[in-house]
UniProtKB/TrEMBL annotation:
GO CC annotation: cytosol
Ranges annotated as spanning the membrane: 12-31, 37-54
The entry's keywords: Membrane, Transmembrane, Transmembrane helix
Name under which the protein is recorded: Protein MtfA
Signal peptide: none
Gene Ontology molecular function terms on file: aminopeptidase activity; metallopeptidase activity
Organism per entry: Enhygromyxa salina
Length: 300
């Protein structure tokens, strides 16, 4: 995510100044008296300032946020729980940007526990940081990508069912509603960062968000250069057929064969969790994900 995109800021400032200038020119060009001309100029200035604060305010808040030291307690959690972060050079630009992405995500997203009143799940920093780290991992090679805002993230204590109840038979570890919240099982979120078995619900559900961001749930993520090209569509069709006939073993887990959207989400999990395996077993799919995410986790 961008902290201070200079080009965007200049555009917004230019629009704001244009409002002010138009207000002044309009006032002076009219037959108004000087008091009315002053009022017109003030109105233009107010509109311009309002536009600038509305459009550029996010980046001012981000710049203020990252100007403070990253919390030492948060850094300790990331070092202990997030392998991706731990592999980044200490005191390097990549680690600093990861930390910035984490705290921007936490500042701009609403994360809270399921339930109400005394029965509402209390969310600790570790759970919040694992969710934010999922976003920072996916976006690490796409510094200009912006996660959709105003999407609630609701954390359940463990797996839940279709009625969002955490019963013994429940097996849903995460879910994304098209225009609603992201749901996570706290237990399974933690396991995903502990096991490294190609199943990470933090990455999985945010991969769905990438897929949905263009208005379609079809396994094609937003902004992919190959999104509308025949090769990617051919890859999805071919791999789904192989998964459904059990001829794509030991690469992606079987759940990837559910549909195009789940194929992409599982492929993303595998790309980050077991990159060497995916690169060796399916170099074509690996290369497409490498180009999209701007990362090559299998190179290390």
């Amino acid at each position: 995510m961008q902290v201070w995109p200079a080009n965007k800021i200049r555009v917004h400032l230019g629009v704001a100044l244009s409002f002010a200038a138009l207000g002044l020119i309009g006032a002076l060009a009219s037959a108004w008296s000087w008091p009315n001309a002053v009022v017109g100029a003030v109105v233009g200035a107010v509109l311009g300032a309002g536009w600038y604060l509305w459009m550029a305010g996010t980046y001012h808040r981000r710049r203020s946020l990252v100007s403070t030291p990253f919390p030492a307690a948060w850094r300790q959690i990331l070092e202990r729980r997030v392998d991706f972060y731990r592999r980044l050079p200490v005191d390097g630009e990549a680690r600093r940007r990861f930390e910035d992405d984490v705290r921007i995500f936490l500042a701009e997203q609403n994360i809270y526990g399921a339930g109400q009143g005394a029965r509402q799940l209390e969310i600790d920093d570790e759970t919040r940081l694992l969710i934010a780290s999922s976003a920072a991992i996916l976006g690490h090679g796409m510094p200009k990508f912006e996660w959709p805002r105003l999407r609630d993230i609701v954390v359940h204590p463990r797996a839940f069912d279709e009625d969002y109840a955490s019963e013994d038979h429940a097996n849903i570890t995460g879910m994304v509603h098209y225009q609603g919240p992201i749901l996570y099982s706290e237990r399974d979120l933690a396991l995903g960062f502990r096991r490294h078995d190609g199943h990470n619900v933090g990455l999985h559900e945010l991969a769905h968000v990438l897929d949905m961001a263009d208005g379609h749930v079809d396994g094609v993520p937003i902004g992919a250069a190959w999104a509308s090209s025949a090769p990617w569509l051919e890859v999805i069709t071919d791999r789904l057929r192989k998964l459904r006939t059990h001829r794509y073993a030991n690469t992606l887990r079987d759940y990837a064969g559910t549909n195009e959207a789940e194929f992409f989400a599982v492929a993303v999990e595998t790309f980050f969790e077991r990159p060497h395996k995916l690169r060796d077993k399916d170099p074509e799919l690996y290369a497409m994900l490498r180009d999209y995410f701007g990362q090559d986790p299998g190179a290390s």
